[in-house]
């Protein structure tokens, strides 16, 4: 055995399976002739010896050609995002949830792709009827086709869900992240503002805000949800950034002379984003149902608009006579929320190299 | 812990004596006060922690200055001041004749190229979400002039090779490496910009004992190869002795004693150094030549309210009235000769014959 403290021998290197040192060990491979001959994880003669010469020439900024140009082809540069994407493509959970979301987005844009009927056309004679040929989901209270309405409802619900989540997540994580990173009076101010928004009861705030801002579109609802949703994300992001910025690698980046922007984007954001992703994907479901609640109260989307929320709230009173009226839009809502949560989960896992 | 440094390791001998003139780094009367405040929005200053107080030293090219001391004595603050992670409250740090404490922006970035740092804990000093190639290559992205764009990947591979890691592992993540390997990655990152000075803040204290020697030896080899100057901070006396040309003993923000390894370890004249050395465990089970251990009473005083005069006087067995009123200067005491004649901040500096570590 080599001396346990033989400085030439890094025992720990033997742990890592080495993919051939490409002759890089030079004269060093197996030096000291330990009976433990591990040429693949060649012990490094760190002191003196024949290596001294090559080292001096090794670094290219000394104007010498790299000496390992003859070695095996260098693996192409990879980073966190390339590796994460590589991982995600092989993750069935990600593929399934991504397909569902792509499908939902498609029918949100072009509902006529899979539904040829008219969501506004009602036949009162068939009110609350069950499934019939050509109308697989049955009819609602006014005799409108539940299938067509569920398909057309995707647009409003998905728009509200995605836009509100994106808005709240972006606003919240930028404000919270900056507060956590820079601290000081900005942090104090922002936290107090967030507290004020936390104190607003959602329904009361919605009734006041949305009855003042009247418009037929989804944007007032999106704006209201972003307004009340960002403090939650901002708190999560702030806490996460405060934890991450204490790590030595952030200090190391500063010692290297990295700018604040670089430190935030390269070191803090990738390490602090996981909790934000989780909370945001869960919030997406909550926001879609919040839209439903607001619509139910008559201040969200107004009835000519087709949305799952409106349909769910109008079906809720009829659940004993016609459960299909509730189950289909509610099921669509659940699948949408589930798909986004699974997507968020998969992305979070892919961004953690330790789980690979 | 002398058992850390076994026999096969040759005693460190600087191969090239550093030129005595022109220090690369000159620190004068460095001080750092952390204000103690009360209140969240309206902060009131209620005092200050004197983490570092009037520390002066010079570091020559190719030289290693070891700084030892107990936890909380200000070692790490000195390191942070040297690499401009913190701004000193008073004093100057001259790098090649230029005071770096007032630099900012581009000038500071340029100086940072030459003063790099190796961190204590290799488990937190590497970004877990970056590949080794990105970690070691980041210095080149921040300082694009350090390596031409097309060469960076190869430069990273060469750096991995230089610190004794397999260049094929460039796409791995830090968690796939052991502690010693991670510290090598940290050293490679510090080395990437070809700095002149590396400040190592306890670079081996988080490592397994069996790996410490390898990392210390790697650092010595790199010092010779790249003509580096080290400021090596540790609480492990034997590691510091092994690597250092000169040693400074720190107590409560001040240097108590400075000198060569032999002067400090074999001929300590400051009572604190003597007590510190007498506390080093002896691996020899035979208690024959065991020197009397000096047991210090009490705790280290709070740096927010340090004792007047000599900082060590509250725990010193030699303390007299003079120690409370007069701050001892770090200078060679009169009346001492031979290796005992080195700088010591004590009014009653003298050797204790029986103290040997």
From TrEMBL, chain A:
Domain annotation ABC transmembrane type-1: ranges: 154-344
Compositionally biased region (Basic and acidic residues): 1-11
The keyword NAD belongs to this UniProt entry's keyword annotation: no
Record SUPFAM superfamilies: MetI-like (SSF161098)
Spans annotated as Disordered: 1-77
Compartments, as annotated in UniProt: Cell membrane
Keyword field: Cell membrane, Membrane, Transmembrane, Transmembrane helix, Transport
Chief place where the protein resides: membrane
Topological type in the membrane: Multi-pass membrane protein
Residue stretches spanning the membrane: 93-110, 158-182, 202-230, 272-290, 326-347
Record field: compositional bias (Gly residues): 19-35
Claim: S-adenosyl-L-methionine is one of the keywords in the record: no
InterPro entries to which the protein is assigned, alphabetical: BP-dependent_transpt_permease, MetI-like, MetI-like_sf, OppC_N
Pfam families: BPD_transp_1 (PF00528), OppC_N (PF12911)
Family listed: Belongs to the binding-protein-dependent transport system permease family.
Name of protein: ABC transporter permease
């Amino acid at each position: 055995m080599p001396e346990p403290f033989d400085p030439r021998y890094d025992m720990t290197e033997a742990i890592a399976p080495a993919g051939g040192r490409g002759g890089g060990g030079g004269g060093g491979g197996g030096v000291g002739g330990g009976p433990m001959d591990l040429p693949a994880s060649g012990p490094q003669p760190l002191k003196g010896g024949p290596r001294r010469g090559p080292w001096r020439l090794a670094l290219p900024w000394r104007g010498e050609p790299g000496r390992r140009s003859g070695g095996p082809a260098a693996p192409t540069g990879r980073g966190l995002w390339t590796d994460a994407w590589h991982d995600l493509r092989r993750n069935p959970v990600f593929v399934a949830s991504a397909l569902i979301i792509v499908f939902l987005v498609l029918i949100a844009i072009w509902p006529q792709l899979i539904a040829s009927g008219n969501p506004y056309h009602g036949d009162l004679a068939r009110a609350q009827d069950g499934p019939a040929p050509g109308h697989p989901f049955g009819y609602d209270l006014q005799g409108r086709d539940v299938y067509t309405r569920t398909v057309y409802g995707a647009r409003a619900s998905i728009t509200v869900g995605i836009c509100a989540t994106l808005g709240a997540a972006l606003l919240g994580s930028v404000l919270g992240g900056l507060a956590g990173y820079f601290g000081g009076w900005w942090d104090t101010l922002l936290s107090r503002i967030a507290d004020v928004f936390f104190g607003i009861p959602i329904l009361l705030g919605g009734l006041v805000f949305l009855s003042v801002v009247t418009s037929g579109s989804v944007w007032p609802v999106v704006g209201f949800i972003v307004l009340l949703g960002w403090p939650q994300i901002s708190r999560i992001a702030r806490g996460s950034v405060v934890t991450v910025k204490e790590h030595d690698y952030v200090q190391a980046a500063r010692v290297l002379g990295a700018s604040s922007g670089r430190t935030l984007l390269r070191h803090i954001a990738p390490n602090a984003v996981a909790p934000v992703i989780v909370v945001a994907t869960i919030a997406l479901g909550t926001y879609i149902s919040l839209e439903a609640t607001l619509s139910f109260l008559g201040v969200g989307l107004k009835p000519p608009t087709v949305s799952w929320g409106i349909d769910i709230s109008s079906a809720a009173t009829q659940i004993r006579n016609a459960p299909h009226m509730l189950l289909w839009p509610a099921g669509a809502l659940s699948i949408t929320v589930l798909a986004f949560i699974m997507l968020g989960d998969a992305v979070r896992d892919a961004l953690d190299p330790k789980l690979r | 812990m002398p058992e850390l440094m076994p026999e096969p390791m040759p005693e460190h001998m600087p191969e090239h004596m550093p030129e005595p003139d022109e220090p690369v780094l000159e620190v004068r009367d460095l001080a750092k006060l952390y204000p103690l405040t009360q209140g969240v929005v309206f902060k009131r200053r209620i005092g200050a922690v004197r983490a570092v107080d009037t520390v002066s030293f010079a570091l020559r090219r190719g030289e290693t200055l070891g700084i030892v001391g107990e936890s909380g004595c200000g070692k790490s603050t000195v390191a942070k001041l040297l690499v401009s992670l913190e701004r000193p409250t008073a004093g100057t740090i001259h790098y090649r004749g230029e005071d770096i404490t007032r630099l900012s922006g581009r000038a500071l970035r340029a100086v940072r190229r030459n003063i790099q740092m190796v961190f204590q804990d290799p488990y937190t000093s590497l970004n877990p979400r970056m590949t080794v190639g990105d970690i070691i290559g980041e210095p080149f992205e921040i300082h694009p002039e350090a390596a031409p764009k097309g060469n960076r990947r190869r430069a990273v591979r060469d750096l991995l090779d230089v610190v004794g890691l397999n260049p094929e592992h460039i796409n791995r993540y830090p968690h796939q490496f052991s502690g010693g390997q991670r510290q090598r990655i940290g050293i490679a990152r510090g080395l990437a910009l070809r700095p002149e000075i590396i400040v190592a803040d306890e670079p081996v204290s988080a490592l397994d004992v069996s790996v410490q020697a390898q990392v210390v030896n790697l650092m010595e080899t790199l010092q010779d190869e790249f003509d580096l100057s080290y400021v090596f901070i540790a609480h492990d006396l034997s590691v510091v002795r092994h690597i250092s040309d000169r040693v400074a003993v720190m107590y409560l923000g001040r240097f108590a004693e400075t000198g060569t390894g032999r002067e400090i370890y074999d001929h300590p004249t400051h009572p604190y150094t003597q007590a510190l050395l007498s506390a080093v465990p002896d691996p020899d089970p035979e208690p024959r030549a065991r020197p009397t251990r000096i047991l210090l009473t009490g705790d280290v005083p709070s740096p927010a309210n340090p004792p007047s005069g000599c900082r060590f006087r509250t725990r010193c067995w030699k303390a007299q009235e003079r120690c409370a009123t007069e701050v001892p200067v770090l200078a060679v005491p009169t009346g001492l000769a031979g290796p005992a004649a080195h700088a010591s901040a004590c009014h009653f500096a003298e050797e204790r014959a029986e103290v040997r570590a």
